[in-house]
Amino acid sequence: MKDEQPWCFRCWGFGHISRYCFAAERCAWCSGPHDSRSCPHRAPPPAAPASDSVSTPPQVSPPDTSLWECPRCHQAGVNVWHGCARRQTLAAPAATIIPQLALPLPPPRCTPHPALPTASVSPQVTALSNTVAALQFRIASLEAAIDGVEARLDRLAEQRATLDTSLQTGAESQRVIIASVATFAEKMDLFAARLETLPATVAPRAPPSCGARATPFARA
Description:
Blueprint: H1 85-91, H2 123-197
């Protein structure tokens, strides 16, 4: 019995071989973690045929199947080689699928209707078509005008933003000038107060009389 897909002799899984298997090693007879060839519960090999017809083959005791456990289907009493349900399922032949033949369609029972003659275009339809075309042209013109207005509004918004920035800059400059003037006024007040606190070291001159001689300095 041969499976349709490769299977591993190390972990006894399907889809790969033992050379590329990285799983734990399992025994094919008792599902233990050892090599299947060294399992004490494995079935003994069949006896070789005797060369002499007189000699009888040695008696071989049957294996104890109660210790068997298949590493594939995990069923007790069976192993990979004897009674594995999963191996039998995979080895079962696939059902033959018979393709369905495409049957020809029956001919139609009724005859198709004859094609209706095309009617000539009336003047009303022509006038309506011209009106629709004129309306479409006018709508396109209005859309172009709206686009121009939107572009102009965008430019006005940019100019307003620039003007706002200039006004903010002027306001900042005005505040700086006001602060400078206030600082200068404070300094002038301090200077005037300091002048008032200075002592008078020079006496004021008296006006000279008509007959007296003018002296350069008056006596204190």
